[in-house]
Write a structure and sequence with these properties.
The protein is mostly helical and 48 residues long. It contains two helices and no strands. It has a domain of 33 residues.
Length: 48
């Protein structure tokens, strides 16, 4: 994995954002009422 090779993470899944985290984020936005519009959104790993 590029992030591990670059030393950005040790690869510990408890500290690295996972695909399901992104999927949950997207699904939550899709569930918003149609009268809402998400202009921009950001998702950052907290790296506990």
């Amino acid at each position: 994995d590029m992030a591990v090779d670059l030393g950005l993470t040790d690869g510990n899944p408890d500290k690295v954002m996972q695909a399901e985290d992104i999927a949950e984020f997207i699904v939550a936005q899709l569930k918003l009422n149609k009268r809402t519009f998400v202009k921009s959104a950001g998702l950052w790993s907290t790296n506990p």
